[in-house]
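Hi Q.,

Before the meeting this afternoon, I wanted you to have the adenosine-5'-diphosphate prediction in hand. No need to reply - just skim if you have a minute. The sequence and ligand are here:
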Amino acid sequence: MGVLKVKTASGEYEVLIEKGAADVVGSRLRTVGDGGKAAIITDDNVMPLYLDRINENIKKAGFETYVYVLPHGESSKNGCEYLKILEFLAQSELDRHDNVIALGGGVVGDIAGYAAATYLRGIGFIQIPTTLLSMTDSSVGGKTAIDLKAGKNLAGAFWQPKFVAIDTDFLKTLPESEIKNGLGEILKYAVISGGGILRMLEDGFGKHVSEIVEASVNVKRRIVEADEKESGLRRILNFGHTPAHAAEKLSGYSLSHGVCVAAGVNVMLRASVRKAGCPACDAERIAALSRKYALPVSFAYSPGELAAASVNDKKSQGGFINLVLAEKIGSVFSEKVPLTELEEYFR
Ligand code: ADP
Ligand code: ZN
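Predicted structure with the ligand bound:
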């Protein structure tokens, strides 16, 4: 089993990556605390697929379990559902020693994590991500959040899990569109780190699933270890994300995040060729890879529309925005750019 240790200022935790990782959740839970209860939060798509297996496994390890099922989809990541989860934890009489277990994609992980971070001022939290996007991105790093009417992820907390169990077998039931969603984010890791991820994607995702997931988590691990709360280095994880967030917003969130990230990665690589001396062949290599996985290399919105929609990005400040550019594949950096010049980068 692949095991990555994530060291942060607020503690160290393990990420287990392997087919079958879900079957060690109960025994692992025994090693990370002394509570007797576990609340499993999942959604109505994941519930019929994997709940029984996880629930039985945790019960067998001696825990009393409680299950809360959310309707699937981003619209559940709201304040109302969040409060319902808190009330459910209180009704189930979980105390400070007990744990919340997120079984699902990024939506479940984000809202369950925020509930765990705030219930009784914070109780134990375990992530069992079931989508490619949450395995490679949101389950590691400690960001938890819910959406507000004004925008996505506007209320949240940094709250590290006690461990993350990534069972790549769960991807067998994931719809193709959700695999693509995760591949967009993996493309970003390929640009940030170069090397292995890129070669494995070129060889074929299906042949290297667990290795690609592990290598992607490892890139994220290195970055969040160095910068847990996004004061500097962690910004590079935003490669491709500024135009992606703009396009998501312009589409009324009908476009999926990872697919927009794929287009954003390509847009920012072409900008890097013009503005940061990135070799054109690097941009072409990523564009070819995007096409191989039927991911877009550009947006349906004009550079002006994308720039205008980025002005209210929560990462912009005082007329400037931090953009991430690539010197070449494997070497990215963050640069402060005036909002007035943004359109130039999105051409
Ligand atoms: P993300 O991880 O992309 O943020 P979500 O939490 O919204 O996304 O999950 C995307 C969709 O995939 C949801 O409808 C969810 O119920 C469904 N889903 C999650 N994991 C699986 C799985 N392993 N198999 C099938 N469907 C899944
Ligand atoms: Zn992302």
